[in-house]
Description:
By secondary structure, the chain is α+β, with helices and mostly antiparallel strands. It has six domains: 134 residues, no CATH class; 125 residues, no CATH class; 220 residues, no CATH class; 179 residues, no CATH class; 102 residues, no CATH class; 56 residues. Strands 1, 22, 25, 26, 27 and 28 form a six-stranded mixed beta sheet that branches. It is globular, with a radius of gyration of 36 Å. It is found in: Cell membrane.
Amino acid sequence: xxxxxxxxxxxAVAAILVLLRVGSDFYLDFLWFDNxxxxxxxxxxxxxxxxxxLGSLVFFFAFLFTNLLFTRxxxxxxxxxxxxxxxxxxxxxxxxxxxGITLLYCLGSLLIAFILTSYTGGYWMEMQQYFxxxxxxxxxxxxxxxxxxxxxxxxxxRFIYQFLMMVSIVTLLLVGAIYLGFNPSPQVxxxxxxxxxxxxxxxxxxxxxxxxxxxxxxxxxxxELLLSSRGYSFGAGYTDIMVSQRVLWVLFFLALILSLLFxxxxxxxxxxxxxxxxxxxxxxxxxxxxxxxxxVQSFLVSPSELSYERPxxxxxxxxxxxxxGLDRFQVxxxxxxxxxxxxxxxxTPGTFNNVRLWDYRPIGNTFRELQGLxxxxxxxxxxxxxxxxxxxxxxxxxxxxxxxxxxxxxxARTWTNLKLQFTHGYGAVMSPVNEVxxxxxxxxxxxxxxxxxxxxxxxxxxxxxxxxxTRDYVISNTNLKEFNYPLGxxxxxxxxxxxxxxxxxxxxxxGLFALRFADYRVLLSxxxxxxxxxxxxxxxxxxxxxxxxxxxxxxxxYIVVNDGRLFWIQDAYTVNDRFPYAEPQGGxxxxxxxxxxxxxxxxxxxxxxxxxxEDPLVQTYRRIFPELFSDMEKMPSGLREHLRYPEGFFALxxxxxxxxxxxxxxxxxxREDLWELPMExxxxxxxxxxxxxxxxxxxxxxxxxxxxIQPYTPVRRxxxxxxxxxxxxxxxxxxxxxxxxxxxxxxxxxxxxxxxxDQSTEISEQFALWDQRGSRVIRGNLLVLxxxxxxxxxxPIFLEAERGGLPELSRVIVAFGExxxxxxxxxxxxxxxxxxxxxxxxEITEEIPLEDLEDFMPGRIRELIxxxxxxxxxxxxxxxxxxxxxxGDKMEEMEDLIKDLEDRTR
Length: 906
């Protein structure tokens, strides 16, 4: 008795704790959604999920329990004498009563249904999409069925089939086991038992249901042929349509006939029908479903594959281009003339005032070293954006200064510090991409603590409570002031004034938070008051995923300064993997960047703006969650200026376009015009060239704009064949242009330019000299810059001490045509590469011969130039003799002369 009581007590306590935990999760999630004015989203999700779970549970229980009740009579008769003896011996036979059997069936059915339906709630989105489907306005080329059927309807129908089949099979197995176990016929032996056991009619009905469901499965498999990967390309091929489809139709009708036969067998009581009918279906399925298609594919299609697969390859090309948005790309010619003059430079000032010399990796290290200011501040990521500063349109590198609690001194990592005081980061750093100090370090538009910078990027609310590194919960507005920022030898403290987080205005809430986060101090701390706010789900992507798990997020949220505050902009994608005939890539075969999420770094509020309202997926989501999404027009204009074409989406499209720029079926099949992403060298290692943001004037356009670029090379070749540009500024946002180079001449690709840099004696010698002095040379990203109808190449060179230190922007390599030069600045490189255009005095009206220009130069400048030439010759002589020490001395002397010359010519 005591043992039974202890067991029951333990079970009761465990059940209470489980219910408390589940209840606390539910209630606290509701408070989190409600704080963000997303209560409707919460209820839609939970009611859909739990409604589907409860509905499937009730159906499973009712179906199983009802079928089991039909077997109760057989159990009570207990014709199996051996089983009856064992039950009597163990004292269980006394429970074999109508009431006992009914109770056992009820509890057993409920337990089985509860366990086996635990997964069904996870299909709530498929259910919602089914009932809120939006047409694509496109039909498949085989069955002429709307594409939305495959994307929205078929997944839920497949779930319904799998659930009903599971219910039917489980019920069939249990019912069959009961009939076999409790009712063996005494007139026949064991071998004949299967053909004569009682309940044959009941089992026949269940088998009829199973085969009816299997017929449904075969019908869905016919539709799913359009998602086949058997043929040359993704989607139904010749074998799928001409063989597999016909076999599936045969199986469909055969399964329906067998379903009717099993139903008739309820009256006929002929058990062999069960065996022979099942054997026939299995045989046709094996021969027609596996063997025959393989033979046709191998011996008929493969020898003349293009002839048979041509129309299906065309479908694949067309639907893949639609699914990834490649059909919207605009193709133009780029002449790539080998002419570039100073007039071209002067006509595109916005381009050359924004050449991205600072690479995100070196400048990130510089930010951490110079702008971290305290060990517990860090910069997680550096982003590229653009701002209007004064009258100029400037490209910048920007990063938020976030709090890294793990960097606090170990003894300072107390619960009070981690949860109540060190709660947020502070401010951001912004540098123009092309400016550098005399020491090779970046200049700043926004810097320091408190933040100071240009008027356009001033910060009035610099605190970062929600960021990329804010992974743990904190509690604000407690009796303790929060650390805000260091100021000299002292610290400045603050109280949170925002609306983020859930108020801890009751003991119940504190207790539930303590239970959920397994932290009793939330309940017991005397510093927490009714105005305190519990902030959780603070990491940018975690927070957005919590609200909208059906959106796929870009890897790189970026921080924006607007109206004196900090915001995060997160690109979100609508994706699907069931778009007919579309080639999968990265687990999806349909994608749109339909949503931009703006998250306030101080308040934690989120706004989901729809930027591609014609996308059927986002239209369906808007039907499901009408209060979650807003029209693009409602986004503040200051934030709209910072929208950019997402790099992750662009990279996926660029990868797909390597092959799917081809629309000719024969060329596509032969892979005759396959492109590749070019290689470049970074920090001494070859790597794929990443897409990069630049401000430039596109060919044929009159103004500079912010674009995302990706060059291409032909497969197994290093010359450039084209480049891709995604426009980011508001008027033309989302337009992607493909610029094709002429095929009758070679346009040097990034790796070919890298090789020319390696082959330059002057550059190699300088690299060697730096290496001898203990400096590590870091070659930054090579930029391919289209300028009018020409192509210019720029690569920054950084120096870093071998034992660590700040990477300094030391030189800039500029290449054009056959020439490669390396100078201290981009301007100097362009001067050396293109030659300086001399502005004549106003009173001189005739051209002056080049050899007479020296008459206009001050005497000391001419002397410095002569000295520089002499020292250079001496340096070359030292190099030829292997006198590296002498060569180094001469190079230092040259640097002093160059600096003197620069000072005199400014």
